[in-house]
Amino acid sequence: GYLIFELGWAFLTLGIMMGGYWSYETFGWGGYWAWDPVETAELMVWLAATLYPHVNVVSRVLRNFILYLIPSTVFLAMYVTRTGLSPLHSFANPNIGMLLLLVSSLIFLALAFYNISKAEISRRSIIAPLRDKEPYRLGMYLTTTAFILAFLFVFGSLLVPAVMASTGMDVSVPQMAGGIRYFHP
């Protein structure tokens, strides 16, 4: 299964790169990345999938947490793409099917937090890699921490507007120049 996971990750990476090239070269949209909510949603999936092999090295406790986050991000990305959070990619009006995508994302998110709440995590186990003399493990720990922070920021910036939109509120997700200032100051 891990080989299939890595192959899927490689195709996702290639798809994001080709999409950036396509938007720049074919449409001349002024850049390879515009922080459109759909692009950001795919980045969120990529960050979660990239976290998995890093977490395997750093913490077995977080591994199952990430395994539940990955499908949560996939369902949230489908919701963002199909509900019009992005004016460039609004293909349909929100309906019960779209709401089920958001609910599925929230269920997997709840399972991730339920799983981590059942795990025994001590303060010593969290900071142990910092005391490790092996540079590889320390580097993986620091990389994993950076990926987790980036993931949480991107995930939250899409989940909150998605939930707000599902309740009928009018939301505006940062995009283009506003997205660049918001996501990448």
Task: Identify low-pLDDT runs.
Answer: none
Q: Percent of residues in helical segments?
A: over 70%
As a whole number of angstroms, the C-alpha radius of gyration is 18 Å
User: Rough shape?
Assistant: globular
The mean pLDDT is: 82
Number of strands: 0
Strand content: under 5%
Continuous helix count: 7
**How far is it from the N-terminal to the C-terminal residue, by CA?**
38 Å
Give the biggest beta sheet.
none
What's the helix-strand series? HHHHHHH
Structural class: mainly alpha
Keywords:
mainly alpha; globular; 7 helices; 77% helix
Could you please describe the fold and organization of this structure?
With 185 residues, this protein is mainly alpha-helical. 77% of the residues lie in helices and 0% in strands. The chain has helices spanning 2-25, 37-58, 60-83, 96-118, 123-131, 135-166, 176-183. Helix 1 (2-25) runs antiparallel to helix 2 (37-58). It is globular. It starts with a helix and ends with a helix. 27% of the residues are buried.
Short summary:
This protein is mostly helical and 185 residues long. It is 77% helix and 0% strand.
What is the element layout, followed by pairings?
Blueprint: H1 2-25, H2 37-58, H3 60-83, H4 96-118, H5 123-131, H6 135-166, H7 176-183
Helix pairs in contact: 1-2, 2-3, 2-6, 3-4, 3-6
